[in-house]
Model the fold of this input.
Amino acid sequence: MTTAEAQKLSSSGSSGVLKAATVMGAATFISRILGLVREQVFAVLFGAGNATDAFNVAFRIPNLLRDLFAEGAMSASLVPTFTRTLAEDGERRAWRVAGLVFRVLFVSVSILALIGIFFAPQLVGIYASAFKDVPGKFELTVRMTQIMFPFFPLVALAAAVMGILNARGRFFIPALSSALFNVGSIVVGTASALLLFKYGARFGIQPIEGMALGVLVGGLVQVLSQFPSLYRSGYRWPVKEPSDPAWHRDPRLRAMLWMMVPGTIGLAATQINILVNTVLATSQGPGAVSWLNYAFRLMQFPIGVFGVSLAAATLPRVSHLFVSGDIAGVRNTLNSSLRQVIAVNIPASAGLAFLGFPIIELLFQYGRFYPQDTQATAIALAMYAVGLTAYSAVKVLVPACYALGNTRIPVISSIVAVFATIGLNLLMIRPFGYWGLALGTSLAAILNSAFLLRAIRMILRQHGSDLEYAPLLRTLSGQVLVALVMGSACWVTHLGFRHYVPDVLFVEIFGVSALPIIRSIKVFALVIEGIFLTLVLARIFRLRDTTDAYDFFAIKIKKKLQSRS
Done:
């Protein structure tokens, strides 16, 4: 890291994290919007039936491997390793380590992908044995799993490049690459599916297999779109000098790989958790996997825009501060990031819980996605929303443990989360059915975040500092009160819309084609009401984290408008 970059990062403070998170959040917002468009395409073309269930399980298998070997432990260990190498060994050595990571990662996960393609029937049998009871469903899942497995090495390489770019202070392009993944998957997937609707029967290919091909193309676009930015950051194909050790003996690479081991073990425990949840969901009948998937995708919207963005912005800064010995700066950064997580995600969770039905109705209730699917998905979304803030907090706390040099805590937290999730889900599914899985998962996330919060506090105490609970609790209690008032008011408004201005009234006047516009106007009005009430109540209760974030965005918008005038 250059001196100028170090000074810039060191002096940025919590506002620097907020600024970086805002940049990432803007790009991630675009990505999540396109992700919702992708889900809309699925809902219109395929609904929530057997084909969609098959796709969701098929996509989940390579996606879980990505979480296990790429985006999770790898990203969390790569950024601190690159930052430390840059500070201690210089830029050339740092780029050599990055190049070694790219090559080792891509080759190893490509081998795993080939093994996965060969053993796809066995893998699907583990995840979704109940699909064998429906003619053709199991075989369709196997074929799509084989089509999408090459997505795994592509997105793993994309995650590694993203980590390096974030360490260099570049956040927008890496976050935007996910949007380009959605563009590729939507365009190619939809075009392929429409062609297969017309010609697929001749070759025994189902239309939804075209969407699987779209995922593969989207992954290729995601990784290629980041290389120009990586090149501008200074990366060149590393040339080995006589003083450089062999790749398998490089101390930085070996240290990073050893750092990954505990995290991978912890993530393996998480995958066992997801495996159990998938098996339980497939036992709940046709549509259950899809309802939970649509709901979880919607919950991922605020997690991606706010939680992941804050985590990605926090990790490089915490890594730099810890390497520099500034433990007070680490504490202040973590406190600020966690308060921002609470300030944003508590109102967002209330919005999803109270307004889930009209949002899902607007986004998905067309074509083969029916009102009963909307109702079922809305219930699951409300249950997932209970754990939204905890999910986002975990996204910040786990990488922070790696940045602080502790790889043991994430493993323990993952194991604790697994046992909690499995136990709670087995307890909840009997009385509540499919949505008991969403509720159990949320409650387990809350327990996991509490465990990690206490662990971070213990780590900081070992270095003579502490994590202040009082500001977090004040922010949490105030935001919960504001969210309940805001959510209740928006729900009453929604009921008023349904009673006094029902959709059927406008359909009779303008026709069915006006339905998306009418629903959009209603949801937009509800969202504006929610934001307005949140800001007003935050001013009344003096919730500084909410008002500071609002002032930050207002100043940015004002500057943009002034620069154009």
